[in-house]
Amino acid sequence: MTAHEADRTKIKAKSVSPGRNWPDWYAELAAFRNPSSRKAVWQLINTLVPYGCLWYLMIRSIQLDYPYALTLLLALPAGAFLVRIFILFHDCVHGSFFARQGANTFFGYLLGVLVFTSFEDWRFAHLRHHVTYANLDARGFGDIWTMTLAEYESSSRKKRLQYRLYRNPLVMIGLGALFTFFLANRLPKRKVRRKERVSVLFTNLLIVIVILAADRLFGWRTYLLIQLPVFWFAGAAGVWLFYVQHQFPGGYWARKGEWQPLRAAMQGSSFYQLPAVLRWFSSNIGYHHAHHLSPRIPNYRLKKCYDSVPALQTKAPLTIAKSLSCVGLNLWDEDRREMVAFPGSA
Fold first, then answer.
1. Which of 79, 179, 197, 297 stands the most exposed, by the fewest C-beta atoms within 10 Å?
2. Residues 177-222 pLDDT 10s
3. How many other C-beta atoms lie within 10 A of the C-beta of residue 345?
4. How confident is the model at residue 5 (pLDDT cuts 50, 70, 90)?
């Protein structure tokens, strides 16, 4: 048994606890867990090729001394493609993109360099996010810092200020992504093993090599003028997607003894209903309740799964308009069992 298979077995054992039976329709999800190498390769082509072409156009726009506004205009779709690249990376982490684990690992490392994220290190945190999300006694792995109302009210003034700054949209969405991908991801997560630490060092080395190559080919200044806005656009969109997937009106959180994986997936994960073009760029990650129910379903089968299993369609959709209200939800009220605003907020 490989390390990946061992980890997956542990996760399955944790998520399907004794006495917590899944409904009959859950078995229907198994039909959508079979990866397709043909679909995976096509997604790599239709994502990486246009992303590379946009980079070429941005490089030329700077070299030809066109207005920088044109470069920024091109950086917007490039950022959208980078979001899609991250979701493909995310599928590799789950071992669901390709049928062969070796291919998932290889492309996981390759795509990880493009998104400045270590494959093994992020996998360590993200897979634990899947088995601990919405568990109030197991917060802190791959999730957004969320305090209960009681915890917030009993905290020191300093901690309240820290939490308010962290949850401020300008900080979380505006600066959080750049901090996470450029700085935080350069260090291993807490409690990781040697494999994850080596993965971080190896990814950092590859990133340095890419930057040095870019400097030789077209200069570090041009590289920064492109990489920074592309990452900012992609990161802001990515943080927003992750935020509304788990921080929305109602929601679900529970203490360890009451936590149920089915409710965590169906009630604690949103169905973010996006227009077709945004659904494509986000690789169907808006079907997040389906993804949390069965992380082994590849992104290219999530919509078909949703369309085929009526139980998934009972989830009320979160539209773009409705999602804007999520910004004001900051604390989990254990008495009311819902996300609420800061005390005193209008």
1. 179
2. 888 899 989 999 878 889 999 999 999 999 999 999 999 999 999 9
3. 8
4. very low
In sequence order, the 6+-apart residues with CB closer than 8 A to the CB of 260 are 20, 254
Residue 242 resides in a domain: yes
Q: Work out the pLDDT band at 15, boundaries 50, 70, 90.
A: very low
The per-residue pLDDT for range 223-243, each reduced to its tens digit, is: 999 999 999 999 999 999 999
224-249 in b/e form (b: 16+ CB < 10 A) is ebbbebbbbbbbbbbbbbbbbbbbbb
Residue 76 in contact with residue 103, Cβ under 8 Å?
Answer: no
Domain count, the chain: 1
The reply to whether 22 falls in a domain is no
Q: Residue 318: beta bridge partners?
A: 272
Q: In the numeric block, which tokens belong to residue 50?
A: 């246009």
> Nearest Cα to 282, choosing from 267, 303, 296, 309?
303
For β-strands 331-333 and 147-148, DSSP reports them as: parallel
Q: Distance from first CA to last CA of the chain, Å, rounded?
A: 55
Cα–Cα dist 50/113, whole Å: 17
DSSP secondary structure string for all residues of 243-294: HHHHSSSS---B-TTT--HHHHHHTTS-BB---HHHHHHTTTTTBHHHHHH-
Q: Determine what percent of the chain falls in helix, strand and coil, rounding each to the nearest 5.
A: 65, 5, 30
The answer as to whether 19 is a domain residue is no
- CA–CA–CA angle 198, 201, 145 (5° rounding): 90
What's the pLDDT score for residue 16? 42
Asked if 240 and 173 count as a contact pair (C-beta separation under 8 A), the reply is yes
Q: What order of strands is seen across the sheet that includes strand 331-333? A: 147-148, 331-333, 338-340
Above pLDDT 70, what percent of the chain? 94
Torsion of CA 64, 70, 76, 79, to 10 degrees: 20
Residue 40 sits in which domain range?
27-330
- 8 Å CB contact between 272 and 321: no
